[in-house]
Design brief:
This protein has 300 residues and is an alpha/beta fold. The chain has ten helices and eight strands. The protein has two domains: 110 residues, no CATH class; 103 residues, Ribonuclease H-like superfamily/Ribonuclease H (Nucleotidyltransferase, domain 5). The C terminus is likely disordered.
Length: 300
């Protein structure tokens, strides 16, 4: 009820976005002037150079045919569902005209779940890789085939788990795994892995390496294994396992966003965080969303 009261009109939604986009007040992108007047359709017109600026221009809402009220309701609904929401569920909830519209909105929102410039993992971090998809005939357990390879990193915080990072990898070579570590973990951290030879020489790129080789409870990477199990359950439960490999990275971004904020009691803060990220990100063309990240479009 409070949400509907705060964002009852398009004008209220635009005003909220404007405060997020220009927290120190509007500044014309053309001449830097601060004063403006409001024109129709939410345009901000600079009083000095007459340049017109839309509050949604250059954000994920750029040139969207959906009203901001629909976008805001979508964000509220997505951030308030602990296990996420499918495109079909979002279409039915918002009464959207097509499944494709809901699907595109969700993919844009998943990109907004990654904060630009987010801090890497620190301290002691478990790192492992896992396949998404079952064993294929004649290929063996580590045969790629149509499966997707997932890189997993999880901070060790006492007996618990801190923040995590997930990434879709092309292969399990040393270059791929070392690259995943460098992109997700701060230099100087302790990397805890299994005995896979590809993890060797992490010290050469600025990390302490603590491999666990052998059998028994003390050798398990229980944090990353738990995360992998939760990812698989989430993909099967919320999305019925029908995720194309080309779009897997954005689904992983959503899971990381939810997992890292799993203890948050204020759901309204999650809504605000997604909107803050949304006004910082450049527009995502429809063609880029459809083609994903360039992987083949096999289901996993």
């Amino acid at each position: 009820m409070e949400f509907e009261r705060l964002f009852a009109t398009e004008e209220a939604c635009r005003a909220y976005l404007a405060r997020l986009r220009w927290p120190e007040g509007f500044r014309c992108p053309g001449c830097g002037h601060r004063t403006y007047w409001l024109a129709s359709r939410g345009r901000l017109v600079c009083r000095r150079c007459q340049r017109q600026t839309w509050v949604t221009a250059g954000t994920i809402f750029h040139r969207s045919h959906q009203p901001l009220r629909v976008w805001f309701r979508a964000i509220w609904w997505v951030t308030n569902q602990k296990i996420g929401v499918s495109a079909l569920g979002l279409q039915r909830t918002l009464g959207l005209g097509s499944y494709q519209t809901a699907w595109v909105m969700l993919h844009k929102l998943r990109r907004a779940m990654v904060r630009p410039g987010r801090e890497p993992l620190t301290g002691a971090v478990e790192v492992d890789e896992s396949f998404l998809g079952g064993v294929e005939p004649g290929g063996g357990r580590r045969h790629m085939g149509h499966k997707a390879l997932l890189g997993v990193a999880a901070e060790i915080r006492g007996r618990g788990t801190g923040r995590i990072r997930l990434e879709s990898l092309r292969d399990a070579t040393r270059d791929s795994l070392h690259g995943f570590v460098r992109r997700t973990v701060a230099p100087g951290a302790t990397i805890v892995t299994d005995g896979l030879p590809a993890y060797r020489e992490l010290e050469a790129v600025g990390y302490h390496h603590s491999p666990r080789v052998g059998s028994g409870e003390h050798t398990r990477l229980r944090r990353v294994h738990r995360v992998v199990a939760l990812v698989k359950r989430w993909l099967l439960g919320t999305h019925q396992g029908r995720v194309e490999r080309a779009h897997l990275p954005t689904y992983l971004d959503e899971f990381v966003f939810r997992f890292n904020r799993r203890t948050s009691a204020a759901r309204g803060q999650l809504f605000a965080r997604v909107l803050e990220h949304a006004v910082q990100l450049p527009p995502t063309p429809y063609r880029r969303i459809i083609h994903g990240q360039g992987f083949t479009n096999h289901k996993i």
